[in-house]
Amino acid sequence: MHKPRILIVEDHPLMSDALRVQLQLHLPESVCVQANTLQNALACLQSQGPFAMVLLDLNLPDSKGEATLDAVCACRIEGPMVVLTALDDDHLAQSCLANQVLFLSKSVSSAHLMTEMLSALSDALSRTPSHAAHEPEPDSIHQLSKRQRLVLAMLAQGKSRAEIAAELAISENTVRSHMHEIYQRMGVQNRTQASTRYVLWTQQHGPDPQA
Question: Nearest Cα to 53, choosing from 10, 5, 96, 92?
């Protein structure tokens, strides 16, 4: 099963660890790679890429501001990039826009940061070349059965088919059938896309009463 890999480029250890913990809390299947300098970030992009998403602080020990942005954009192969910065600079914001990079201030709430990052990741996953699912039906999660929503919630928690089957006292084949129907109704291709969309949905609507 493909696990989304996310590169966190941040020189402040507490901020870097907080981002990693929050991402893995919302997307248990994600794998976070951390870099604290531009040199380390470029090495990760060249040797460990591609990444599903890059989170970038522009002020690093070996590079500052737009120079950091230009270097990472030049090395990035695919996937969304999110700039997280304490800088209030209209020119930088315009440079991010020109490079199709999401510009977010570190002064906004952690909930807002996470919603924006998950939304960017969800949009990118839905545009991958392998994506061949049907268009999602309006409010597709509400149209899932109670059992399907329970399975979806467990998928978003990172549980395996075997764990879900054991917890619900059903066979793995039944879980697989539920997953197939969930993907079809939601218009997604895999559990990563379904989980990301479900997490965003619960952030907008609150805890799922069916799960």
Answer: 5
- Taking alpha carbons only, the member of 69, 66, 77, 82 closest to residue 22 is 82
Question: Tens digits of per-residue pLDDT, 20-63?
Answer: 998 888 888 888 999 999 999 999 988 886 788 899 999 999 99
What does pTM read for this prediction? Answer: 0.62
Contact 32, 8 (CB under 8 A): yes
Intra-chain end-to-end CA distance of the chain, in Å: 23
| Identity of residue 18 | A
d(CA 72, CA 50): 13
Q: Give residue-wise pLDDT tens across range 70-107.
A: 888 888 766 788 998 887 778 888 888 877 888 888 88
Domain residue limits, the chain: 5-126, 146-205
CATH class of 5-126: alpha beta
Q: Which amino acid is at 26?
A: H
DSSP letter (8 states) at residue 198: H
Q: Tell whether omega for the bond before 138 is within 30 degrees of 0, i.e. cis.
A: no
One-letter amino acid identity for 36?
N
Assign domain 146-205 to its CATH architecture.
Answer: Orthogonal Bundle (1.10)
Of 4, 96, 98, 105, which Cα lies nearest the Cα of 53? Answer: 4
